Amino acid sequence: MTRFMHRYIRVVDAVNYRVGRVAMYGIFVIMGILLISSVNKTFFTPTLWTLEMAQFAMVAYYVLGGPYSIQLGSNVRMDLLYGEWSLRKKAWVDLMTVFFLIFYLLVLLYGAISSTAYSFGYWGTEPFSFFSGLITGTEEIGHMERSSSAWRPYLWPIKFVMIIGIFLMLLQCISELLKDVLRLKGEEI
């Protein structure tokens, strides 16, 4: 079991490390979009797509970079008491609190999957059966959801990115849970 835990931690950390390192360059994408917006507003005709595209890029940057942030321990914490605790006490507290985060992420993931199904034109209450029906050919895509802005982009791509990011965050939280268990057992990670 311990070997499985070490392998899971190694694989998930490696995936989230690579995704996070790529996602961190998203800030330059956001800056480029906003620069185009500023130049166009100042010298040319203002563009319709730049502000909303910058928002989409920011969502992708934040959601895909979150697991990397958790992995590095650079997420926001209340260090008033936590910073002075021993590694063992931190592991116990983290072990208890990570279950709340995992529950929250599971609810968030279900909501993201439901919202993505809705953006594909599914009006029912079973989003998982909708996606399995898309794969098997028993369901078909309906009227796709679009933004209400003047640009009117489809919303499913950013919602799909949110599913990926939330799923990676869930995997990283389970990795952190396993790290805490191994710390409490006195093993090296």
UniProtKB/TrEMBL annotation:
Protein name as catalogued: TRAP transporter small permease protein
Function (record text): Part of the tripartite ATP-independent periplasmic (TRAP) transport system.
GO molecular function: transmembrane transporter activity
Annotated organism of origin: Pseudorhodobacter antarcticus
Membrane topology, record value: Multi-pass membrane protein
InterPro entries, per the entry: DctQ (IPR055348), TRAP_DctQ (IPR007387)
Entry keyword Nucleotidyltransferase: no
Domain Tripartite ATP-independent periplasmic transporters DctQ component: 30-181
Sequence similarity: Belongs to the TRAP transporter small permease family.
Residues annotated as transmembrane: 21-39, 51-70, 91-113, 154-174
Ubl conjugation is among the record's keywords: no
GO cellular component: plasma membrane
Record keywords, A-Z: Cell inner membrane, Cell membrane, Membrane, Transmembrane, Transmembrane helix, Transport
Pfam families (alphabetical): DctQ
Locations listed in the record: Cell inner membrane
Organism phylogeny: Bacteria, Pseudomonadati, Pseudomonadota, Alphaproteobacteria, Rhodobacterales
Domain of life: Bacteria
Quaternary structure note: The complex comprises the extracytoplasmic solute receptor protein and the two transmembrane proteins.
